[in-house]
# Entry
Amino acid sequence: MKHLILGNGPAGVVAAETLRKAAPGDDILMVGHEDAPPYSRMAIPYLLEGNIDESGTWLRKGADHFERLRIRQLRGRAVALNTDKRTVLFDDGHFEDYDRLLIATGSHPVRPPIPGVDLPEVQTCWTLADARAIAAHAKPGARVLQLGAGFIGCIIMEALAKRGVQLTVVEMGDRMVPRMMTPKAGGMIKRWVEDKGVRVVTSAGVQRIDRGSESGREAPLVVTLSTGDRLDCDLVIVAAGVAPNVGFLEETAVHVAKGVLVDDRMETSVPGIFAAGDVAEAPDLFTGAHLVAAIQPNAADQARIAAMNMARGTTTGEAKLNGVLAINVLDTLGLISSSFGQWWGEKPEAGGSGVELVDEARYRYLSLQFKDDVLIGATSIGLTQHVGALRGLIHGQVKLGDWKGRLLANPLGFVDAYVARSQQPMALAR
# Structure
């Protein structure tokens, strides 16, 4: 049997390795389109900080790792899929056939339709090539404007600050990290960042980017904000979100919404075709609604399940995903924050309730959100120990019973609640 894996990021690599263990005699071909060994995008900020070189981003360090596992590699970009013939057309014009196909093509950074966004000093931060371009422009003292203060933006911010640039962050939302932080938590992170010398402009966008020479200024770029401000810049970094790479699936029978829709076996609407990672929309743990959870741990979990089912085909013993749980852990200039699950809560009429603990002076924050007596989401700032217990309670959908009332009175008791309600044998042994 031939397994074709489109994508050589974390999902593709984990799937290939899982397939090799599950199907020792099968043919495995993994395809990536970048001129680099399989690497982790999450390591790019460390590359920009100078803590590692490019080899430090590689997912597997051994030069012959994939060869030893008999995982063939190919460079190319899929441009079309024929589900009837079971073939994929690549950008160099050649076809590959398959018996089982995994779509792990990841995502790409979004470039908003802003005049001037295609100028060479305007960069995204998604690939090793992007990192090289940013390193060339982001010299100490350079004036850098970063568009977007979401998860990716905050990770980049850490690296830029360490390069000694003059950084301005522009975010359309009313707070930093608006898609993973409550209003209070996002406001606290903004204040922390400003205290570190970064200018943050929220509820604002970039209207246009012009050459400085065209505006009578000496700076390479002049950026006009929706507030009317005009800023001289040496570099603009666009961190305005990502979108799944699904263009080659147009006019196919593979169902696509925002990403590729999959069931709990990570199989698409076409039998024999699976998807995993940033490109996949899998059922949410609580609501069952399909969700793209673009984080590396989820990508690895999905890849293992997809690979097990690819190896087993339609026989019994299927591997299934226990629902996607949104997880974000962020280091913003040394301030650790996290959010899990349905952190924004549930409506009271649907059984929702919550509690918020705020310590502005010490930059400590905790929000717990419940549905009936189950913890469904949490947000934290400044808590660096035992936050895994929050994930455990949420992912396990643990019924808290009378512990819910105790947590509403003392949110920081979540570790005791986890031990008492999900680790009862351990608690009794104490």
Notes: The two ends are 52 Å apart (CA to CA). Residues 425-430 have pLDDT under 50 and may be disordered. The longest strand covers residues 352-359. The first helix runs from residue 10 to 22.
